[in-house]
Amino acid sequence: MSTAQAQLLLTELAGELGDAASGSPLPVDRVEAVGARLAESRFVGSEVLGRSVAVLGGYFGADASELLAAFTTGYLRAFRAWLLAEQESVRAAEIAARRATEAQLRDSEARLRAVFAQAGVGTGISDMSGRIIEVNAAFAHMLGYEPAEMCAMAVPELTHPDDPPEMWDLYASLIRGEHDNVQVEKAYSHRLGHAVWTNLNVSLIRDADGEPQYTLVLVEDISERRALRERLHYRAHHDQLTGLPNRSRFFDALSVAFADPSARVGLCYVDLDHFKSVNDTFGHAAGDELLVQAAARLSACASLPEHLVARMGGDEFVVLIPHPHNLGEVAGLARTVLDALARPFDIHGNHLTITASIGVIEDRGQHRTADELLQAADTTMYWAKAAGRDRYSVFDADRGRRENTKAELSAAMPASFTRGEFFLDYQPIVGLGDERLVAVEALVRWRHPELGVLPPGRFVDLAEDNGHIDALGALVLELACRDSKRWHDLFPAHTPTVSVNVSASEVADPTWLGRVQRMIAETGIPPDRLQLELTERTFMEAEGLPLQALRTLSETGVRIAIDDFGTGYSNLAYLGQLPLHVVKLAGPFVQRIRTPETVNRTDLLVLETIIGLTHALGLTVTAECVETAYQAERLRNLGCDTAQGWHFHRPMPAHRITDLLAEPAIDGSRRPR
Ligand code: C2E
Ligand code: MG
Ligand code: MG
């Protein structure tokens, strides 16, 4: 009520009292009504009654006490009624509020219950003793039960054989309150027996004091997703054609086997022999069928569950034997595989036989990585192929190392040319009569930055294989011709012949002849001071153009020698047809007459025949590898012309040859030592 309204009301009530007070009999009722109206008009402050009585007391005069009583009575009655009404409305509001809260709570509980009951996600609550308090239909039906049936169970009854032990340790620590949430992939047993794979999320529910009260689980059925994942995994780890584990699965298994570095691992690397010809002859469908059948036979050979047969691609398979007792066990399996494949295959009505080559290796993870082991097994398989196929070879670390450095040497060769790592030593060749130095044989060496000086046996064949032999041969010829020219300039009267070894593939190169001729012309050496040594094998291979090249050189005066004669075909009849000047008797021949004890009549007879025939053909004979005075003596007696060997000189650098040539002749002969 505004001040103006209050004034209006009070003015009205004052007027009423004025009217009433002047009336008679005493207007008790009207005064009482004014009192009541004051209270009804919400003038209910603590001072209202007191002040009103004080003012009215003076106003009412003689009848004041009676009228005041009436006023007070009227005021208090109305005040009391207002108060009661006021209290009542507060209580009603309170009740309404409580009811609303209760209704809200009921609603929210019903909502929660509906969510719990109808949720697609399996949900359950259990207490700290493992008693299942509640599960929703989704959870129960996932496992083939009704919710009530599951509520009769306890959590430990939900164990599955695939549960890893850590899972239950984790659950225990959750119960102890050490975690608030655990998430795992877990299998449950369906009522019908099969496994239901789920994503399980367990949360700990604590009370207001933080004490664990319940566990809440949320389970999602991932069986299908898991099956798909497993299918994809299977496909990624198995060969489509044969169904065998593939390369990637094999490497997984190998790293598991290698997890303990001291554990031994065995491998059989199997490659079918001439598989390509099956494809070519019978078509790819037959080839595929053969692979499928061979794969099945291989699988049957793997007698133990831990053996793994994998297809590495094409016609290559591997059998992994984790922790074999010994190498024999691995080799035994290789034998079994060979036997299993030996039976003919029935491929679309054709009977096919096929063999295999197998590399066998047994090793520890400490020695080799998985890749290295496989590489070694593969290399060993090629040894089996090289040895004639249809067999197994066992890995030999020494041979492996040799072949390994061969590959490394081969790769290092191009750079070694530019770095000038190849150089020549010369071995003197002396006349057997007077031991005068008449010739030197150029012997190439490789000063390898890490391996030191390598003999030609380590890299000449390699250069033939990798195509660097032409460059090597050209370099050797150039170095030898330059040294020869220097000796010729220094010692024109007794310039030694320089004998250079030439390999078959050099001679076969159509540009070789031109190169040799150019080198002779450029260095200006007398052609008859150059000798080319070719092995018997080289001559046998040299037909047509190569032989023509040798003839051309021979005609210009270049001397041609057959090297290591006697190690190959020793075809004496053939000698006459070659453009030859010298026959070099191979070391093994000479070695047989090393001492009086080792010599026998036949050896001497053979030597005598060769020397005699060679002479008859107008050729000279040089003996190699003369290591003893006895050999020198014998050879001299047999009529051998010249010789080289440690008995006279070891191979040496060019400047030492220069020193030897400079030594004064003793008794008219040069006897350099
Ligand atoms: P080769 O032509 O028969 O050379 C003789 C080999 O016998 C040399 O070995 C020499 O050091 C060794 N020798 C010399 N005297 C004795 C001895 O009294 N006892 C024994 N046990 N051995 C002796 P090297 O230098 O290791 O050469 C080996 C082979 O490498 C040579 O055999 C030759 O076929 C080839 N070769 C060397 N240099 C070249 C080259 O420049 N080009 C080509 N294509 N091949 C070369
Ligand atoms: Mg030689
Ligand atoms: Mg030789």
TrEMBL record:
Positions of the PAS domain: 108-178
PROSITE patterns membership: EAL, GGDEF, PAC, PAS
Signal peptide: none
One of the Pfam families matching this protein, by short name: GGDEF
Chain ranges of the GGDEF domain: 263-397
Domain PAC: 182-234
Residue ranges constituting the EAL domain according to the UniProt record: 406-665
CDD domains: EAL (cd01948), GGDEF (cd01949), PAS (cd00130)
Classification via PANTHER family: BIOFILM ARCHITECTURE MAINTENANCE PROTEIN MBAA, DIGUANYLATE CYCLASE DGCP
Protein name: EAL domain-containing protein
Species assigned in the record: Nocardia aurea
